[in-house]
Write a structure and sequence with these properties.
Length: 394
């Protein structure tokens, strides 16, 4: 019996050693598997060709329509929200800036000049309305200020603004796949915000099988077997359903108990606000939202690597995080953990903005999340310093 036992142990050790060798080879030879699939918009190029056939000039009085149904400037495609390409829009009395703003889009539907031949390092920015900043003149946007500051410092960069209002990570991934990679960026900067768990109609999130998630070899083998691949959980493609939102709220309530008081001074009252706003930025305190965002971040990094571009993340806070007496940075910590997983440098703006507010007391936001002109200038300088630390353009 002892001999048999020793043989069994020897066999198990041999199998284990062989698997470890195979796993090591797989990590060298096999590229990471996609964590999301794009449902291709077959009419994307045709649509943009029609939009670029002539320049449209729009005058938009009052509020700019960023609803899911879209409007005259924003509209919904089969793969998510977009700006209309090759359009000039004048927004009168913008509800945020209380100003008149001109927005010009290029042939790709970006709030950006045309992207021509590359003459200096090119940085593509992905994000929502915090990136597009349709409430500010283009020269005051964070993306354009980064470019201007870099030029003044003698290390010129070309920045490309692919931001679109009221979208999330899945939609940003669709934009990267459809048009973003076509501009041949050297660096891809994701401007992440707390409500980025919002889904896209054009992206299918693939959750890895839990017992295989650690092994690249096992994941690859599973992907070759249809019956295993078909068991993977996939997010619903219509967005965050009421049932999912309710589940996330229950989870947040259990982990972060609510209480009375004002959210700026009472941690329990801040937790109450998080629960109240789970449908928006409060979702970032739930595991469920991160289960949806993690594979998208992995896929953005994989695509960046595949196309020879560096992938960097900038984390934008909500105003309440900046104003509270007690630091509430659970989402930023979660994001930092994933950034380490995928090897993506991360700039967390929360410490900087909390410091600025404490020392200067100037208004950094126009509402709960959109940076004011002063806030935009501070953030642009911080992003350029971040790019310099990461040796972009050097």
């Amino acid at each position: 019996m002892r001999v048999v036992g020793r043989r069994v142990v020897a066999v198990l050790l041999g199998v284990g050693a062989a698997f470890l060798v195979a796993e090591s080879l797989a990590r060298v030879l096999l590229a990471p598997l996609p964590r999301a699939r794009l449902v291709v918009d077959a009419g994307d190029e045709e649509r943009r060709a029609l939009e670029n056939a002539r320049t449209e000039t729009l005058r938009i009085p009052g509020a700019l329509d960023q609803s899911p149904e879209g409007g005259v400037l924003y509209f919904t495609t089969p793969t998510g929200k977009r700006f209309r390409a090759n359009t000039r829009a004048v927004i009168e009395n913008h509800p945020l800036g209380r100003n008149t703003v001109e927005i010009r889009t290029n042939s790709l539907g970006y709030r950006n000049r045309e992207v021509g031949p590359k003459t200096r390092p090119r940085v593509l920015f992905l994000g929502d309305s915090i990136t597009a900043q349709d409430y500010l003149p283009e020269q005051e946007t964070i993306v354009r200020q980064v470019e201007r500051l870099a030029r003044r410092k003698g290390r010129p960069l070309e920045t490309v603004n692919a931001g679109v209002g009221a979208i999330g990570l899945a939609n940003e991934l669709a934009i990267l796949l459809e048009t973003g990679l076509s501009v041949d960026p050297d660096v891809i900067v994701l401007n992440w915000y707390l409500n980025d768990a919002e889904a896209s109609p054009g992206v299918e999130v693939i959750e890895p099988v839990g017992w295989l998630a650690w092994s690249r070899l096992a994941e690859w083998l599973a992907s070759q077997i249809p019956w295993i691949d078909s068991t993977r959980e996939r997010s619903d493609l219509s967005g965050v359903s009421p049932e999912v939102e309710a589940r996330w709220r229950q989870e947040v309530a259990a982990r972060f108990p609510a209480g009375p008081g004002h959210w700026a001074t009472s941690p329990a009252a801040f937790h109450a606000r998080v629960q109240e706003l789970v449908f928006d930025w409060g979702a970032a305190w739930s595991d469920g939202a991160w289960d949806r965002m993690r594979p998208l971040l992995h896929e953005m990094k994989r695509l960046s690597d595949e196309h020879g571009a560096r992938f960097l993340i900038v984390a934008f806070p909500v105003r309440e995080q900046v104003w509270t007496q007690t630091l509430h940075d659970d989402p930023q910590k979660r994001l930092a953990g994933i950034a380490r997983e995928i090897g993506a440098p991360l700039l967390d703006l929360l410490p900087l903005l909390r410091k600025e507010r404490k020392e200067r007391g100037e208004p950094l936001f126009l509402d709960w999340c959109h940076p004011s002109p002063r806030g935009s200038a501070i953030i642009a300088a911080a992003i350029l310093e971040f790019l310099e630390r990461e040796k972009v353009g050097s």
